[in-house]
Amino acid sequence: MDDATQPTADTDWETRGRQAMLMVVQDIIELTQKLIDTNLSDEKVWFRNLLVGILNSARRDYRSVEIGVKQSPYLAAWGARSLLELRVIAAFVVKSEQNALQIKADFVSDQAEFWTAVIKSSVATHPQLVNSMRELAADAGFMEEAFLSAAREEQERGAPIREPRAEAAAIKQVMNESGMDRDRAPRPFKEMAKAVGLLEIYDPRSKMYSKLVHATALSIASSTTAGSLDALMPLFECQAGTDLMMIYSSVKDHLEAHGIAPKADPVEI
């Protein structure tokens, strides 16, 4: 074996690191299944589902990083950014029952914001659809009248917001019945990161990933040169692996200390 074919120390380290991460992923799968198989009282199901959702999302996002570091830096950045956010959420959720309940309430707030955005988007884009159909009619030759008729029907039908409005109304009703503020917004990640002592990690890394995930001047420019982001991939993979292990550790340590229930808030004396 010549020098060119001998495994380097870096290659050996990478192999051991990936093997270790395979073990972490398997541990997460087993822990998730254990949570799913545990019989619980109704009042604990929501917390179990929250932990399962965090673990499932973490595995999915880490897989995105694994694929992305080989095929797409943008996919790697997206997965790494999501894992960073999940690390913050996991640490926040297990810190106290009040925190866990805030994330539970965020689920309702997220739905309210989602359906409101769907409605606004449909209303804004529907006129553009009708105009596009009319423009197509002008170049449709003998099919012009058919296209114009379809455009008129689409305009009369209006934006497809009946079902989204029903969903939004249902969510608002849930918020009313539970005493939630109808305009409540989900907890910002920066606030959560600060609350669990992760702001110094979250802030710069979130900005770094966002520069590549979103359509920025940097992401656009990097798309014109093949391999321009390759040097960052080991860093992204390492950071994603660390976040995955911390997410697993947060959930596992909590279960060992408190079981499948939120950590009780300290009693004020």
Task: Note down, in words, how this protein is organized.
The protein has 269 residues and is an all-alpha fold. Helices cover 77% and strands 0% of the residues. It has ten helices and no strands. The chain has helices at residues 9-37, 42-71, 73-95, 97-138, 144-157, 162-177, 189-195, 199-213, 217-222, 233-258. Helix 1 packs parallel to helix 10.
Structural class: mainly alpha
Mean pLDDT level: 91
Order of helices and strands: HHHHHHHHHH
- Our Rg estimate from Cα atoms comes to 24 Å
Which percent band covers the strand fraction? under 5%
Number of helices: 10
The unreliable regions are none
Globular, elongated, flat, extended or rod-shaped: what is the shape?
globular
User: Which percent range fits the helix content?
Assistant: over 70%
Number of E strands:
0
Q: Describe the largest sheet.
A: none
* Gap between N and C termini: 72 Å
